[in-house]
């Protein structure tokens, strides 16, 4: 199972990268991109 800090780091990175193309993406989850997490969530 992934630690929650990994998801937070991905969220911050996506927001930071995508804010150069769209200033509103700084306030959206994952910069406004759809993220699909897959795996066994038992």
UniProtKB/TrEMBL annotation:
GO MF: 5'-3' DNA helicase activity; ATP binding; ATP hydrolysis activity
The protein's required cofactors: Mg(2+)
Cross-referenced InterPro entries: DNA_helicase_pif1-like_DEAD
Taxonomy, superkingdom: Eukaryota
Enzyme class (EC, first level): isomerase
GO BP, sorted A to Z: DNA recombination; DNA repair; telomere maintenance
Catalytic activity field: ATP + H2O = ADP + phosphate + H(+)
UniProtKB keywords: ATP-binding, DNA damage, DNA recombination, DNA repair, Helicase, Hydrolase, Nucleotide-binding
EC number: 5.6.2.3
Coiled-coil region(s): none
DNA helicase Pif1-like DEAD-box helicase domain ranges (all copies): 1-42
Family from the record: Belongs to the helicase family.
Stated name of the protein: ATP-dependent DNA helicase
Native organism: Arachis hypogaea (Peanut)
């Amino acid at each position: 199972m992934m630690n929650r800090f990994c998801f937070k780091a991905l969220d911050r990175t996506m927001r930071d990268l995508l804010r150069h193309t769209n200033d509103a993406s700084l306030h959206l989850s994952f910069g406004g991109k759809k993220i699909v997490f897959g795996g066994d969530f038992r």
